């Protein structure tokens, strides 16, 4: 019950119970006492509260549920819509304007539920970063487990730590993220899920999740990972999850307006894709050549034994396309692939993984000796021909197969999928 100025004047009722305001019979308020203690408005509110006909014992009630019983769900909704929630941060957001749109945005992300839950914990300040621990009186001066720097704050863990920086560079996102830096990690991560953010939210959040996971692995189990494998794992987690859900690949507006995002080009076009079979420890490369009228000319499935890294398969696919162009004496041709990191690496916009550097050197050498109109990146759905040829390649018994009819590969794929 609200304490009023008038109540403060009645020190004799300061520690009294509500029952002191009720008549002895138990079903009427003591109007005179209520009016004497409270302001007229407060008194009217109290007198409007109905009393039960027969006396009931005192009990605790949860005022946010109609039946008076506490539920975690009601507390959660009250918290999320309250000013106390770290999610109600927008200057325009207040408790009367409904749930924060950020919250809806978060749960609509196309990433695994456990990663969304991690993100929710980040946004509500409940991951055990030094700042969050300090808010609960737990001061921790341990250095960063990954680089031993005395700064182990969340901006360090997720961005400034050399381990994190290397990851963002491998992912081709370092330069992009620099401009989004905020003094606090809460503000930083909220940028990525705000409706106006035009970057690859799902990849960024998944990398953050893995960064935190590896920070803990290093801190508690002394297990260290290499930054490159974190990026591969992040891409794989997203791809596998979205494919399992049957969702098409989604591109953010900023990515589709990226200068390396493929658009229709004149001249011959070569579509490339790589696939791996961890089970057989081999990679498949698929190439589809379309002539300058956009008609299918030929396709290639090529198998590489002893390669189980998806990035290596993608780099090999681009090199194979250039070999094909060289052998067919193509000129003014364009190459399209759905592996954005390879396209970025070829254009020097991201760091090439160590094990792919020889292949990248070959790509650069061939690119300079040939008349290449451009190398671009396209969505997975637009690369279905090369995808099918690559998928076929990793499963085939021979090492090389040429295709003259793209429809033929589908009947062959059906045989694979049935067996
Ligand atoms: Zn560090």
Describe the protein in words.
With 419 residues, the protein is α/β, with parallel strands linked by helices. It folds into three domains: 5-48, no CATH class; 109-254, no CATH class; 259-418, Nucleotidyltransferase, domain 5. It has 19 helices and six strands. It has helices at 5-9, 31-37, 40-48, 72-80, 101-107, 113-123, 130-135, 154-160, 162-170, 174-178, 185-193, 201-221, 227-244, 253-256, 310-327, 340-346, 357-369, 384-395, 406-418, and strands at 269-277, 282-290, 296-305, 333-337, 372-377, 400-403. Strands 5-4-1-2-3-6 form a six-stranded mixed sheet, with helices on both faces. A hairpin with a 4-residue loop joins strand 1 and strand 2 (282-290). It starts with a helix and ends with a helix. The model is unreliable at 1-9 and 87-96 (pLDDT under 50). Zinc ion binds next to loops. Zinc ion (ZN) binds at residues 144, 146-147, 149, 156, 161, 163. This is Reverse transcriptase zinc-binding domain. Residues 98-168 form the Reverse transcriptase zinc-binding domain. It holds the Pfam family RVT_3. Residues 272-390 form the RNase H type-1 domain.
SSE arrangement:
Elements: H1 5-9, H2 31-37, H3 40-48, H4 72-80, H5 101-107, H6 113-123, H7 130-135, H8 154-160, H9 162-170, H10 174-178, H11 185-193, H12 201-221, H13 227-244, H14 253-256, E1 269-277, E2 282-290, E3 296-305, H15 310-327, E4 333-337, H16 340-346, H17 357-369, E5 372-377, H18 384-395, E6 400-403, H19 406-418
Parallel strand pairs: 1-4, 4-5
Antiparallel strand pairs: 1-2, 2-3, 3-6
Helix pairs in contact: 2-3, 8-9, 9-13, 12-13, 15-17, 18-19
Bound molecules: zinc ion.
Zinc ion binds at residues 144, 146-147, 149, 156, 161, 163.
């Amino acid at each position: 019950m609200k304490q009023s100025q008038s109540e403060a004047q009645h020190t004799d009722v300061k520690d009294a119970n509500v029952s002191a305001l009720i008549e002895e019979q138990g079903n009427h308020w003591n109007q005179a006492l209520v009016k004497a203690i409270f302001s007229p408005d407060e008194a009217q509110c109290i007198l409007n509260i109905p009393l039960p006909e027969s006396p009931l014992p005192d009990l605790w009630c949860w005022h946010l549920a109609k039946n008076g019983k506490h539920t975690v769900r009601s507390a959660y909704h009250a918290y999320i819509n309250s000013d106390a929630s770290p999610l109600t941060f927008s200057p325009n957001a207040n408790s009367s304007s409904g749930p924060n749109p950020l919250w809806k945005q978060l749960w609509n992300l196309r990433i695994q539920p456990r990663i969304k839950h991690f993100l929710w914990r980040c946004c509500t300040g409940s991951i055990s970063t030094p700042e969050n621990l300090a808010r609960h009186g737990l001061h921790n001066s341990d250095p960063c487990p990954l680089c031993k720097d005395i700064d182990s704050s969340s901006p360090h863990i997720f961005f400034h730590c050399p381990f994190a920086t290397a990851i963002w560079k491998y992912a081709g996102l370092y330069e992009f993220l620099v401009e989004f830096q905020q003094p606090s990690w809460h503000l930083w991560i909220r940028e990525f899920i705000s409706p106006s953010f035009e970057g690859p939210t799902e990849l960024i959040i998944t990398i953050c999740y893995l960064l935190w996971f590896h920070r803990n692995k290093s801190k508690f189990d002394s297990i260290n990972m290499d930054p490159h494998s974190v990026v591969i794992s992040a891409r794989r987690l997203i791809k596998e999850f979205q494919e399992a859900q049957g969702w098409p690949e989604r591109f953010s507006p900023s990515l589709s307006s990226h200068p390396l995002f493929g658009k229709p080009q004149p001249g011959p076009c070569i579509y490339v894709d790589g696939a791996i079979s961890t089970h057989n420890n081999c990679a498949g490369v698929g190439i589809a050549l379309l002539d300058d009228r956009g008609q299918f000319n030929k396709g290639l499935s090529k198998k590489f034994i002893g390669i189980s890294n998806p990035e290596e398969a993608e780099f090999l696919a681009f090199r194979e396309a250039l070999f094909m162009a060289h052998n067919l004496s193509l000129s003014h041709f364009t190459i399209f692939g759905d592996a954005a990191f390879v396209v970025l690496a070829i254009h020097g916009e991201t760091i090439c993984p160590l094990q792919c550097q020889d292949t990248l050197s070959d790509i650069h050498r061939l690119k300079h000796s040939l008349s290449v109109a451009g190398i671009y990146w396209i969505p997975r759905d637009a690369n279905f021909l090369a995808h099918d040829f690559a998928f076929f390649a990793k499963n085939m018994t021979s090492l090389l197969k040429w295709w003259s009819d793209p429809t033929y590969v589908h009947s062959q794929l059906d045989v694979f999928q049935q067996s």
